[in-house]
Design a protein that fits this description.
Helix 1 packs parallel to helix 2 and helix 1 packs parallel to helix 12 (239-248). The chain has helices at residues 16-29, 46-53, 79-84, 95-100, 105-117, 130-134, 138-149, 155-158, 179-196, 199-204, 218-222, 239-248, and strands spanning 4-9, 35-40, 58-62, 89-92, 121-126, 162-165, 207-210, 229-232. It is globular. Strand 1 (4-9), helix 1 (16-29) and strand 2 form a beta-alpha-beta unit. By secondary structure, it is an alpha/beta fold. The structure holds phosphoenolpyruvate. Residues 9, 166, 171-172, 210-213, 231-235 line the site of phosphoenolpyruvate.
Length: 249
């Protein structure tokens, strides 16, 4: 059975105490390990969150990493550094990094390889803009991002990947994809894995949906056969809302 995952992307929010308190409240509310809960705090507060989650079924992820292990890369943090402090996942290719920081599929691909090398599980975001959806190019965009950002992975490496389908028009907008819209892209993604690798791997990879998920719309999305969890932004900043999404998984 595929792993169910609910990940919270806290983005550039909270302060040290707020991050520790939110992590503690989520740890207290996660009853079992049926759903893997991943908290992605701002990097500077990661150690505080790692401390709060230690010994619990909740794990920690980075919101981004660099693709080199060490050296003269001012301001960057390597995947090895994140792994060193107890981080297990790394969100890579989030649309905010693609759009604001200019990250390309090629850069994301370097980061994916580096993260796996460091022992992190990449949570790779893929998704079309509103313009791309309206012009009918959703499938082509998803296919391009899939093949370029995940290029060059053998089957063993790909087994570490988690994919998040995040339509850009749904992120932080309150405009959630319908369960059918999301399911259609998720099932295309699973077919792409099957075509590039095999059906065993395709059945194994968790594909999350992200984009304005909240406690009201989560259950319908998560009931879809190819939606294995959610990457949650805004609604992950309040323990009650986030835990309600975890419970609906
Ligand atoms: C995100 O940042 O990945 C996200 C899905 O944000 P939101 O839930 O706020 O749309």
């Amino acid at each position: 059975m595929r792993q169910k995952i609910i990940a919270g992307n806290w983005k550039m929010n909270l302060d040290r105490n707020g991050a520790a308190e939110l992590a503690a409240a989520i740890v207290a509310g996660v009853a079992d390990d049926e759903v893997l809960v991943v908290l992605c705090p701002p990097s500077i507060y990661m150690e505080a969150v790692v401390e709060e989650t230690m010994g619990s079924p909740v794990v920690v992820g980075a919101q981004n990493t660099f693709y080199e292990e060490e050296g003269a890369f001012t301001g960057e943090l390597s995947p090895q550094m994140f792994a060193d402090i107890g981080c297990q996942f790394a969100i890579l290719g989030h649309s905010e990094r693609r759009q604001i920081m200019g990250e390309t599929d090629q850069i994301i691909n370097l980061k994916v390889h580096a993260a796996i090398e460091a022992g992190l599980r990449p949570l790779v975001c893929i998704g079309e803009t509103l313009e791309e959806r309206e012009s009918g190019s959703t499938e082509a965009v998803i296919r391009r991002q899939f093949s370029e950002s995940l290029a060059g992975l053998d089957e063993e490496a790909f087994a570490h990947i988690v994919i998040a389908y995040e339509p850009v028009w749904a992120i932080g907008t309150g405009k959630v994809a319908t369960p059918n819209q999301a399911e259609s892209v998720h099932s295309d993604l699973r077919k792409m894995i099957e075509n590039c690798y095999n059906s065993r791997l395709a059945e194994q990879v968790s594909i999350l949906y992200g984009g304005s998920v909240n406690s009201e719309n989560a259950a319908a999305l998560l009931a879809q056969p190819n939606i294995d969890g959610a990457l949650v932004g805004g609604a992950s900043l309040k323990a009650g809302n986030f835990l309600a999404i975890v419970r609906s998984c």
